[in-house]
Amino acid sequence: MKRESFTLLEMILVLLLITITLFPLIEAFSIAVKTSKSITNTNIAIELAQQKLEQLQSVPYSSLSSTQESQGSISGYPIFSREAIVIEEQTNLKKVDVNVYWPFGTKMEQFGLSTYFINY
């Protein structure tokens, strides 16, 4: 006698096996997408921090001062905010910290760069 169909039990077992193997793959894909987005945002933050430092290099030493750009005020980057903190550590020496912030999930991420400006 030739058997040409599957039993209900066989179908349930196949579906169970497919389900058990697909869920970890879907979870891995979800994690990969989140990681990719995080890396992209970090690269954008690095670029924004470097841009701000380059902008400050063109400012006369005596005019260097702290600035703050709120979320949505950086053209083309609506989820990012940025601040430059200028501290005069010694006469003719200012430390500049540039921090970039952006939301990721339920928390805020941050990237920062620091440099010194000398008045000589």
Primary descriptors:
31% strand; alpha+beta; 4-stranded antiparallel β-sheet; rod-shaped
For the terminal residues, how far apart are their CA atoms?
Answer: 99 Å
The quaternary state of the protein chains shown equals single chain
Note the run of SSEs as H and E.
Answer: HEEEE
Strand order of the largest sheet: 1-2-3-4
The biggest sheet, with number of strands, parallel, antiparallel or mixed sense and barrel status, is:
4 strands, antiparallel
- Helical content (DSSP H or I, runs of 4+): 40-55%
Q: Point out poorly predicted stretches.
A: none
Kindly report the average pLDDT value: 92
Give a verbal description of the structure.
The protein has 120 residues and is of the alpha+beta class. It has one domain. 42% of the residues lie in helices and 31% in strands. It contains 1 helix and 4 strands. It has a 4-stranded antiparallel sheet with strand order 1-2-3-4. The mean pLDDT is 92.
What topology emerges from the helices and strands here?
Layout: H1 8-57, E1 67-69, E2 81-90, E3 93-104, E4 107-118
Offer a quick outline of the entry.
The chain is an alpha+beta fold and 120 residues long. It has one helix at 8-57; strands spanning 67-69, 81-90, 93-104, 107-118.
